[in-house]
Amino acid sequence: MSRKRTLQLMATITAAGALVAGMTVALAPPASAGTTLGGAAAEKGRYFGTATDPHMFSNSAYMTVLNREFNQLTNENGMKWDATEPQRNQFNWARGDQLVAHAQARGMRVRGHALLWHAQQPGWAQNLSGSDLRSAAINHVTQVASHWRGKIYAWDVVNEAFADGGSGGRRDSNLQRTGNDWIEAAFRAADAADPGAKLCYNDYNTDGINAKSTGIYNMVRDFRARGVPIDCVGFQSHLGTSVPGDYQANLQRFADLGVEVQITELDVQQGSNQANIFRTVTRACMAISRCTGITVWGVRDCDSWRTGQNPLLFDCNGNKKPAYDAVLAELNAGGGTPPATTPPGNPTTPPAGGAGCTASVTLNQWTGGFVANLRVTAGSAGTRGWTVAVTLPGGASVTSTWSATASGSTGTVRFSNVSYNGQLAPGQATEFGFQGNGSGSGMTPSCTAT
Ligand code: 9MR
Fold first, then answer.
1. For residue 340, which of 283, 407, 271, 290 has the smallest C-alpha distance?
2. Residue 190 Cα, ligand 1 centroid: separation in angstroms?
3. CBM2 domain location, by residue (predicted)?
4. For the whole prediction, is pTM greater than 0.85?
5. Are 328 and 29 in contact (CB under 8 A)?
6. How far apart are CA 414 and CA 230, in angstroms?
7. Residue 297 Cα to chain centre, angstroms
């Protein structure tokens, strides 16, 4: 699709979105809108998925809903350590293979869940420690990620490694006791085994800015600065009867580190607030260009691990609940196409720099404001750093910037790289963006390599 066509589409979507936001969700979505969760998300360059397990694939009522509504699958249990390596170095791929085959046949993405976790370890691993456990764990990552190489959109490389409560530190576990570097060792092994998969850290109780999410944020920032290959952070979002007011701000601070953010295990306790909470979560994701998708943790209420809490979007008969209507309306109302992930820098091989760079802009404009996503591509010598100059139209101003530092806010504004995205190999690209007031039309970015 041409960029011009994209802009026209975005303008249409934005106008329709404004309309929906002002109405009650009971009204039908606009005629052009998606009519299923996956379809509506795909129109915005995102996925909408569910946890499932191949033992459900013979249930036709269940599969009717799954195949109609979702374009991403997570294996709820079948790709975990106890399922895939029940005896040391003896692998069982059956459930994972079945899920991947179903997804591939229908053009659905797969999130791999999860390579390393303190829970659901096979008995033999629970009994290991020290360097023996470390090498078994890295071998597990390598074997599993290699088996499904090229078939996984994103892997939860490490799951739930941070402690609850106020410490902001790591959870104690047999894996943690092998040394604090076990997480980065896992990410490096996963990257070597499946370089095309996005590599995520995934956790719960990270739904607002709190000690636990800040501990994770600091780890991700450190990984990006040091070139440890992390591409995404998963927010499980197992929610009760409320959602923190800073839910979106928390996602945004991670996105500002240059990683994708994904809602990975969403479910919400049934109650008067259920639809509103689902709406808030969906709206937050759609407002963040690096929020690439949402996964609910099961299809129908009776499929949920939260027995009796009815926390999903379909009742036990497969009927859509009010929460479903709320989510669908938000998907149809929300944001544009998310940009590609910014690759982490590689501090060990600084490029020569000096042979230039180019920049292009994609604009999402609405009445009174806009979001500009910029792509910087290094020339033949790579970059050590870069600056992109953008002259804003009269009356326009920059209100926030991500993945770059801005000089000034009106007239000609210069955006310079931050620590993790300045070094680009020849031909490598990275992305940054800014939000502005007024009109952003006609901006022509010019890039200088430093
Ligand atoms: O939903 C999963 C349930 O069927 C399993 O019994 C349980 C085992 O620990 O894991 C559940 O899924 C968890 C996920 O893997 C990680 N985040 C929390 C999920 C809910 O407990």
1. 290
2. 22
3. 350-450
4. no
5. yes
6. 28
7. 15
307 CA → ligand 1 middle, Å: 12
CA of 119 to the centre of ligand 1 (A): 9
Give the three-state DSSP class for 87. Answer: strand
Order of strands across the sheet with 446-449?
405-407, 412-416, 386-391, 446-449
The residue annotated as part of the active site, out of 69, 85, 184, 265, is: 265
Domain parsing of the chain, residue ranges? 3-333, 357-449
d(C-alpha 323, C-alpha 37), whole Å: 12
Q: Is the dihedral of CA 71, 77, 82, 85 positive or negative?
A: negative
* Pocket test residue of 76, 95, 156, 295 for ligand 1, highest count of atoms within 8 A of CB: 76
In angstroms, the CA 371 to CA 14 distance is 12
Answer for the pair 199, 186: CB distance below 8 angstroms, yes or no: no
> Thinking of the domain 357-449, which architecture would CATH place it in?
Sandwich (2.60)
Instruction: Give the mean pLDDT per block of 10 residues along the chain (450 residues).
Output: 34 35 40 85 95 98 98 98 98 98 95 98 98 97 97 98 96 98 98 96 98 98 97 98 97 97 98 97 97 98 97 98 98 69 34 74 81 87 91 92 85 87 80 86 92
* Torsion sign, CA atoms 226, 229, 230, 231: positive
Per-residue burial over 145-154, b if 16 or more Cβ lie within 10 Å, else e, is bebbeebbbb
Please check whether residue 111 is in contact with residue 154, taking contact to mean a CB–CB distance below 8 angstroms. yes
CATH number of the domain at 3-333, please?
3.20.20.80
Q: CA 15, 17, 21, 24: dihedral to nearest 10 degrees?
A: 110
Look at residue 264 and give its three-state secondary structure.
strand
Closest C-alpha to ligand 1, atom 13: 76
292: helix, coil or strand? strand
- Whether 65 and 59 have beta carbons less than 8 Å apart is answered as no
Nearest partner of 73 among 94, 57, 91, judged by Cα: 57
| Amino acid occupying residue 322 | P
Active-site residue, 431 included: no
Mutate to test the pocket of ligand 1, among 204, 268, 296, 297 (most ligand atoms within 8 A of CB): 297
